[in-house]
Design a protein that fits this description.
Length: about 375
């Protein structure tokens, strides 16, 4: 898969980022990374550390939240000058969340919800989630955070051409879209489900990346992959990565996909927006499609009905993000009742509804 040159599209408008920082206040950014692999996280820190530590005296206050999805802290992480690291493991969840500790899955990428909550409680204004096998692209690494954050300065004008402003674009105030999250993409190993991955390993279809950032239209869905996403602080109460785990709930790998459905439903209802495209990272490791197939079987069946059920959820006219998320949590409780083919998953969706409400309460209690 080729890396595309995007520097002359959205980044030509980096000046808009100055508006966000006109108060001379340093933006607080929490970078949240789940891992189970010491070697991988060390390589991750080696590749990224120098870029993030340099922000200590500049525009951003960066804190790296590494959650080791193991019972006890086994990793000895290198200390990087100028970079603050919060290193947690499974044993740290209960002391932080108390009786709500059960809502953080163990042995699943969905464990990233824990460092996301910690970064919110720390006061971070933006939360960036990355996988431990996602590395910076050489030419773009120094502006990686800048590129994510320009999404939150998105104006209200669609460009019909690229490279120059077409006739009719105002010279002054162009308005601003209220963007909740920016979904970054990646080169290297594409994020495919197991059946597609097996087919493509035979056919070898080339993946084409989108060359610039796009606003996802209201009424359209997208597939959120949490390996490179920047969230605005106020959406985190609705950004829970859902209960997953092959050994616990019977399937995995839909935590971020379904989280994205819920956020998109809320965004469309309340008039917020989601952007997709730049910045890119390099995704270095493709997971085993046969293992993924074991994890995905039940989720693939559920997903065919679940997205349409979320689309039909009745949301209040006058509501907040948290109000909408609460409504969706209660709506999900009845999914196996209203969709009879899902009856065998009744226990899971009852538990999931409880977990979503429990997650939401963490923010009202904080």
């Amino acid at each position: 898969m080729q890396s595309l040159d995007f520097r002359f599209t959205d980044l030509s408008r980096l000046g808009r980022l100055g508006t966000m920082m006109s108060t001379n206040k340093r933006l607080s950014v929490g970078i949240c990374v789940p891992t189970v692999r010491e070697r991988q996280i060390r390589e991750f820190l080696k590749r990224w550390g120098s870029f993030w530590s340099c922000y200590e005296q500049e525009a951003y206050d960066v804190v790296l939240f590494i959650h080791e999805d193991n019972p006890g802290k086994a990793f000895e992480l290198p200390k990087l000058p100028g970079l603050k690291i919060v290193h947690t493991c499974q044993a740290d969840i209960a002391p932080q969340l108390g009786e709500a500790e059960w809502i953080i899955p163990r042995g699943s990428g969905a464990s990233r919800s824990f460092p996301m909550f910690l970064s919110w409680r720390h006061g971070c204004e933006y939360m960036l989630t990355l996988d431990d096998d996602c590395y910076p692209l050489d030419l773009e690494a120094t502006i990686f955070l800048d590129t994510h954050l320009t999404a939150f300065c998105q104006d209200r004008w669609f460009r019909t051409i690229s490279g120059i402003e077409p006739r009719g674009i105002p010279y002054g105030n162009r308005g601003r879209l209220q963007v909740l999250l920016n979904h970054g993409l990646w080169t290297g190993a594409p994020d495919l489900d197991a059946p597609r991955s097996l087919v493509e390993s035979r056919n070898g279809t080339k993946v084409m990346l989108r060359a610039e950032r796009e606003v996802i239209p209201p009424g359209m869905w997208f597939t959120l992959c949490a390996m490179n996403v920047c969230y605005r602080r106020d959406v985190i109460p609705a950004a829970y990565n859902l209960l997953m785990g092959l050994d616990t709930v019977g399937f995995d790998r839909f935590d971020d996909i379904w989280s994205g459905l819920l956020i998109k439903r809320i965004a469309d209802h309340l008039g917020f927006y989601i952007t997709n495209g730049i910045p890119y990272v390099h995704h270095a490791k493709a997971s085993d499609p046969f293992k993924n197939l074991q994890k995905e079987v039940a989720g693939l069946e559920i997903h065919e009905y679940f997205w349409r059920y979320i689309a039909s959820a009745p949301l209040q006219t006058e509501a907040t993000i948290s109000d909408c998320y609460r409504t969706l949590a209660l709506w999900i409780y009845d999914f196996p009742i209203k969709e009879v083919r899902m009856k065998k998953y009744t226990a899971y969706f009852k538990r999931l509804s409880e977990a979503m409400l429990c997650w939401l309460k963490l923010f009202s209690d904080a």
